[in-house]
Structure formats: C-alpha cells, structure tokens
Amino acid sequence: MFDMIISFESFIFLMIASFLAGFLDSIAGGGGLITLPAYMLSGLPMHMVYACNKFAAACGTTIATLRYYRNKMVDIPIGLTAAAGAFLCSAIASRIVLYLDDHTLKTMMLIVLPIVAVITLVNKNMGNENLSHLFGQKKKYVLSFLIGSFVGFYDGLVGPGTGTFALIGFCLVLKYDMRTATGNAKFLNLASNYASLVVFLLAGTVYWIVAVPAAVFNILGNYIGAGVAIKKGAAVIKKMLMVVIVLLFFKVLSEFIM
After folding, report:
1. Closest CA to 163 of 188, 193, 191
2. What is the pTM of this model?
C-alpha cells in the first residue's frame, strides 16, 4: 500500500529517521535537521512533508515533555509564559519573513550559529547547576516571556534549531540547569508544533499512512532520549547541543553556497 506515493524502502528509511530525530530533539532540539531531508528524499509532495513532519514531531515532543514533567524537571509557569511569547512572536516573524530574501536569511544564520557555538564552549559551567532561584518571580516571568519571544521570532523567521536556542536561553539567561532548561524548552516546541499542526490538519495535508507510524517511532525516540537526558544530565545534553549546532551550521552553509 506504500507504493502509491513512496516505496517501502523509503518508508523504512523515514521510520529510522523519525526515531533518530526524536532522540536528538528530546535532548537538544534539531530533530527537523534529520526528518525534513528524509521526507524530501522520499518523494512526498512538500505540503505532505511539512504536515507529516509536524504531526510526528508534535506527538514526540508531547511525550518528552510529559517525561520531563514527571521527573520534576520542568518549571511549568515559566515554560508556559515562554510558550506564550513564542507563539505571539512566531506569528509576527512569519509575516516579516515574506519581505526577506533567502540570501539574507542564510547570511543571518551563518553569523548567529558560530556565535552560539562559541558561547556554549566558553561557558563550560553552563547548565551544571540550577541558579534560577536567584531571580525574583516577576523577573523570571518577564525574562521567560522575552526568551520565548526571541526564540519564537527566530522560529517564524528562520526555523531550524528552535528547541536548541530555547535550551541555551534558559541556561544562559535564567540560569537553569541543563535538564530543567531542556524541559522548559519543550513548552516552546509544543506551542509552535501544535499551532502549525492545526493548520495542516484543517488543510487535510497529513498523509496518515506515513504520519502515524512516523509519530510512533518519533515518540519512541523522544522517550528514550528524554530518559538519557534525565539520567546523564548536563554532560550528555552539552555534547548533543554541540552536535546540533554543527549540523545546523553545515546545513545552512551548504544551502548558502548553492
């Protein structure tokens, strides 16, 4: 039945990619760097590519968020506040991006990514300890909304690595430990994923034969990845974070050169 749109081999490849993306995304973000190219290589029409990817990602992120929550690694009020800012500013940025050309967007990414990598490497103690209690509650709400706004704006303007930048924001600005920052960042992903998913569902572009099993594999990857982050803590998250940053940089560099 899979031969109607994609081959059985492409289907298996997509399931593997969905699992790996879920694993990566649950720890440091950036799962779309794996799944989007995989979906495109499968030959699915682009509107189905985005819809299937968003459906699987939304399901997987939900499971990862729940696991962080059950292990008390999420500051719910702060995460929700950041999600509100992300949702609002992502919508605004989506309008702005219509006025920017691809060259400008790719140039922005090539400037931003090395800076993020340097900041992460220089701050060797980033995320080792939760010092968010040093902030007053009102200040935490304001800063979390600003983090959500900036990351959401980036999501609407550029896209890849939204969860990664959210994680870094919670660590550097609000001084959360890596594990809690990762849990908080999931709220941003949820807000963005479900907002987009509703649009795709209403448009009827989700190819269920692929989307549902992809979601199952993505959920499995997220569940296992979240477990690794919970057990290993900051050390494994930092390593995965650098992997995502490098992947993002070379992806944008290749597109920029082309």
Report:
1. 188
2. 0.77
